[in-house]
């Protein structure tokens, strides 16, 4: 053994202090975007059965949730609406008194420094549950674009800081950028769901947002999970059309795609740690099968390491608390 020559990597793992010194990837509270579901009515705080700890909030109670987010130092939220009324074109998505518009105005009035992102889609607002106009069982791409642009403008008028279109129609970023610019909102950024897969991980979200399609599926407009190069084409199109951020959704099964989109684009990339990823961790934790804190921080770190600049996650509040505990423990 005396004559052996080999590298001793363990030298840099000998203590918590040394490990911290050489740590390559760090999570910060500023990395997180927290999703909030707002619903019609009063005195409504409805826990989503498939998403423990996640609630639908009526406007008279939502400030309780938003105040907690602000106190934790999370810089941004994304607002999803659960309306009372739906129709074939999702008209409550772009109504000036729609649930999302009312929530944005209220939240911005109470917390002007909080970055409020508006999810811009039609599926929660249509009676058929698809993300666009339907004719003879098909989603019509170009007719949907006008409605998406109207929705984005109405959200900007309500005070949204960022528009996040999630519908995956061809040309949706171009249509929304044109609509915003024409309405005088040239400074409002677009956080595009540029790479959105047709994933089995969305089930709990559809429970929360009441957005399951009433027929068929979304495979004609969301991406095949088997495709990698298509993600680059989608991201490139959105960049050309005026996107300012690129979302990859889901995150955990698509870390390779996050890295490729980041390397290709150089744009701010957002990993969407989706509902199914959240719920699996919660279910395993409740059964005592895993250490929730360690699992969550590990998977969020993996998204950051893969190239995500921001992480949209239902774990955000817990993650910030755990990071604060870890930081205190290091002192």
Automatic annotation (TrEMBL):
Give the domain of life. Answer: Bacteria
Q: Where does Mg(2+) bind?
A: 234
The reply on keyword Cytoplasm is no
Answer yes or no on keyword Coiled coil.
no
One Gene Ontology term of the molecular function aspect: zinc ion binding
Q: Which InterPro entries match?
A: ALAD, ALAD_AS, Aldolase_TIM
Cofactor(s) needed by this chain: Zn(2+)
Which BP terms does GO give this entry?
Answer: heme biosynthetic process
Q: Active site annotated at which positions?
A: 196 (schiff-base intermediate with substrate), 249 (schiff-base intermediate with substrate)
Task: Fill in the subunit field for this protein.
Answer: Homooctamer.
Function per UniProt: Catalyzes an early step in the biosynthesis of tetrapyrroles. Binds two molecules of 5-aminolevulinate per subunit, each at a distinct site, and catalyzes their condensation to form porphobilinogen.
UniProt family annotation:
Belongs to the ALAD family.
Q: What is this protein called?
A: Delta-aminolevulinic acid dehydratase
Q: What organism is listed for this UniProt entry?
A: Halalkalibacter alkaliphilus
């Amino acid at each position: 053994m005396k004559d052996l020559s080999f590298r001793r990597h363990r030298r840099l793992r000998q203590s918590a202090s040394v490990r911290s010194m050489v740590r390559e990837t760090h999570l910060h509270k500023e990395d997180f975007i927290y999703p909030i579901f707002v619903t019609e009515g009063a005195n409504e705080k409805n826990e989503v059965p498939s998403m423990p700890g996640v609630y639908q909030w009526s406007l008279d109670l939502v400030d309780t949730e938003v105040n907690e987010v602000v106190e934790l130092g999370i810089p941004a939220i994304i607002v999803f609406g659960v309306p009372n009324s739906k129709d074939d074109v999702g008209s409550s998505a772009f109504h000036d008194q729609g649930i999302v518009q009312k929530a944005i105005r209220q939240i911005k009035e109470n917390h002007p420094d909080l970055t409020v992102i508006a999810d811009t889609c039609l599926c929660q607002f249509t009676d058929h549950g698809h993300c666009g106009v339907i004719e003879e069982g098909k989603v019509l791409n170009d007719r949907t674009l006008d409605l998406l642009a109207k929705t984005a403008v109405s959200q900007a008028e309500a005070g949204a800081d960022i528009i996040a279109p999630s519908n995956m129609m061809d040309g949706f970023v171009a249509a929304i950028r044109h609509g915003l610019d024409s309405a005088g909102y040239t400074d409002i950024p677009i956080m595009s769901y540029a790479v959105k897969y047709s994933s089995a991980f969305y089930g709990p979200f559809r429970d929360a947002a009441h957005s399951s399609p009433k027929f068929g599926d979304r495979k004609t407009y969301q991406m095949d999970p088997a495709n990698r190069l298509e993600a680059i084409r989608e991201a490139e199109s959105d960049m050309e059309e005026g996107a300012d951020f690129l979302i990859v959704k889901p995150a955990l099964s698509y870390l390779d795609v996050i890295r490729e989109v980041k390397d290709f684009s150089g744009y701010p990339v957002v990993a969407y740690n989706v509902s199914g990823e959240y719920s699996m961790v919660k279910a395993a934790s409740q059964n005592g099968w895993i250490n929730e804190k360690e699992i969550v921080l590990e998977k969020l770190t993996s998204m950051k390491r893969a190239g995500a600049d921001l992480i949209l996650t239902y774990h955000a509040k817990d993650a910030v608390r755990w990071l604060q505990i870890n930081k205190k423990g290091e002192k």
